[in-house]
Amino acid sequence: MTEHLDMTVLSAFLDNELESDEYVRAKRHLDDCPSCRATLAELRAISQGLQAIACAPPPAELRERLDWLFDRQPTAPGWRRWLPRSLSAAASITLGLLIGNALPGQPEVKPADHNLLAVLGSSPPGALCAHPELCYLKVNSQ
Ligand SMILES: [Zn+2]
């Protein structure tokens, strides 16, 4: 005799989810093995019991009581509805600000040296440019 069928195969057999060759193999084993047949019978009983629970409609009295409770539920005044949301938003903003302040700052950026930039300007800034003649267009060079 081969190994017993595991629960996955038995469950698939019960639900008719096995391929044809697997089904034939499982069926042969079940014909010869009383232990697996007993396990399959237990699985079948559990499945039928669960289906009976799932299909049972709730008692009408329970539905009526629940409807009554939901209809009688006092409505909260306006401020009691928006207060928790407002507090949550304020707490989120405060937490974001605290986390933002706790993060390390960016390195200090030094302002650019204006004298260096003046050398690159379009007009020569007097004595700052070492070769101001290079900045002028020579028109009468002949
Ligand atoms: Zn078996």
Write structural notes for this entry.
- The protein is an all-alpha fold and about 140 residues long.
- The protein has a domain at about 1-70.
- It is about 60% helix and about 0% strand.
- It has 6 helices and no strands.
- Helix 1 (about 5-15) crosses helix 3 and helix 2 crosses helix 3 (about 35-55).
- The radius of gyration is 42 Å and the shape is elongated.
- The protein starts with 6 loop residues before the first helix and ends in a 23-residue tail after the last helix.
- About 5% of the residues are buried.
- The mean pLDDT is about 80.
- The site of zinc ion has 6 residues, from helix 3.
Q: Provide the helix percentage.
A: 55-70%
Could you report the average pLDDT, rounded to the nearest whole number? 81
- SSE series: HHHHHH
User: In whole angstroms, how far apart are the ends?
Assistant: 113 Å
Unreliably modeled segments: none
Shape: elongated
> With helices defined by DSSP (H or I, 4 residues minimum), what is the helix count?
6
Tell me about the largest β-sheet.
none
Which ligands occur here? zinc ion
What structural category characterises the helix and strand content?
mainly alpha
How many whole angstroms does the radius of gyration measure? 42 Å
Report the strand count: 0
